[in-house]
Specification:
Helix content: 25-40%
Strand order of the largest sheet: 5-6-7-3-8-9
Number of helices: 10
Order of helices and strands: EEEHEHEHHHEHEHEEHHH
Structural class: alpha/beta
Largest sheet: 6 strands, mixed
Distance between the termini: 72 Å
């Protein structure tokens, strides 16, 4: 099976600082593939490389056979028409209504007549439970509504591949769970391949078919597979700790401070 996204020996550096190197993986059609790991491991950097926002220091990425770092305008246009991106903030234009935010993409990449554009926008907003909200500004939406509006805009061209950067960030547990259901429904209903950047464990277990885990110290991938299997069977303490199956990240019992000792230490510091 030919992968929809192929990453080969990818490396990224900021100056002399190596973020990661030797990163390779494939993403196949219809998968929900998650890139996980702790802070500073390079998740966002990979996201930027895959979406063409950052040129990697080494290696190669192919999204539907096209390198996002290409300077060929026609290839880039083809790539962008077949991919959607949900940024962490939603990245909606604040001065434009939801309708205009979505119509902008369709007018840029298609020659569809206005009635068809209107139908597509209303259909996509209905898919994410925002029917009737097309004339609202982003400032009039809640955090969860902005995320749903962002995914509606990302889906407006019926992309083959959808990139999502921390889709659950900033959402309360109930809204986050609802968004996970939306992601699964879009994946099942439209067969969209999804690549999700996240560190939210509940979302990882809820939606991801397969994951890779990056590690800051290792500067690369330390685990790959079904997250549920990794939680049960990985022998790597870093992987077990991240997925909740190993050494707890926090002490089981916090030590109670001794008031007399705190007062004595304070007096020593002032002396």
């Amino acid at each position: 099976m030919t992968p929809v996204v192929k990453v080969e020996n990818l490396a990224a550096r900021y100056g002399k600082n190596i973020v990661f190197e030797g990163v390779s993986f494939d993403v196949f059609e219809g998968e929900i593939f998650a890139i996980v790991g702790g802070n500073g491991c390079g998740k966002t950097t990979i996201f930027k490389c895959m979406t063409g926002l950052l040129k990697p220091s080494g290696g190669r990425i192919l999204v539907r056979g096209i390198d996002p770092a290409t300077e060929d305008r026609e290839e880039l246009k083809t790539l962008r028409k077949g991919t959607g991106v949900l940024f962490q903030s939603g990245a909606l234009f604040g001065s434009m209504t939801l309708y205009d935010n979505m119509a902008l993409v369709l007018k840029e990449y298609t020659a569809l007549p206005s009635p068809v554009i209107d139908m597509i926008i209303r259909t996509k907003l209905g898919m994410v439970r925002l029917a009737g909200c097309e004339n609202l500004l982003p400032s009039e939406l809640s955090g969860g509504m902005k995320k749903r509006a962002g995914i509606a805009r990302a889906m407006v061209m019926d992309p083959v591949v959808l990139f999502l950067d921390e889709p659950s960030a900033g959402l309360d547990p109930i809204t986050s769970g609802e968004f996970d259901i939306l992601i699964k429904n879009v994946n099942t209903g439209m067969g969209t391949t999804m690549i999700i950047i996240t560190h939210q464990l509940e979302s990882i277990f809820n939606v991801a078919h397969r994951v890779i885990m990056l590690d800051k110290q290792a500067k690369g991938i330390i685990a790959e597979g079904d997250p549920r299997e990794l939680r049960k069977h990985s022998k790597d303490p870093r992987v077990k700790a991240f997925f909740g199956g190993g050494i707890p990240r926090y002490p089981a019992k916090l030590e109670q401070p001794n008031p007399d000792k705190l007062i004595a230490d304070s007096k020593k510091q002032k002396a």
